[in-house]
Design goal:
Number of helices: 9
Structural class: alpha/beta
Number of strands: 6
Distance between the termini: 36 Å
Strand order of the largest sheet: 3-2-1-4-5-6
Helix content: 40-55%
Shape: globular
Length: about 190
Amino acid sequence: DPSLRAETRSSLGLRNRFAWLSAGRLVEVKRHVDLLAAMRIVRTAAPDVRLLIAGTGPLHSALERAIDEYGLAECVSLLGLRSDVRALMQASDAFVMSSAWEGVPMVLLEAAASALPAVAPDVGGSGDVVSSGDTGFLTPARQPRDLAQAMLRLMALTPPERSSMGERARLRVTRSFDLEQVADRWE
């Protein structure tokens, strides 16, 4: 929805800056500290980048301190608990996560269904959702430098290339994770 995208981007002050979205609980396993370390690298190469982090949890205050310590206050926003994650996904250019481990991350499925290319660690079922080089990029877990390089690689794609990658993500999730498809496989 182009109008929802424009409205949400405007309300977040994104203008035409590249916007990453991360959504989830602010807990140790999600390794937001690695994501912030990656953002320090990404911001050096792309000063206008933005990172939106939606979610709450016990590490909120620690992440606020890390954002200040890393000098990222102008490019990273902790959005708190949001009921409009769909709108945030539409307003974003790509999705990123930095978890140390996962099952099949629902948030990656949601990002793919929203046609967002993603960068994610190759843990648990992330590789079932993200096909590296096709629908996004997979990186080793707990490696901020690798995460940053994958983010920069995705950002270097042209808008049509990113859009095509996102559409392939949507197609992949529809084919592989659609409720009817999953039920048929179980039956």
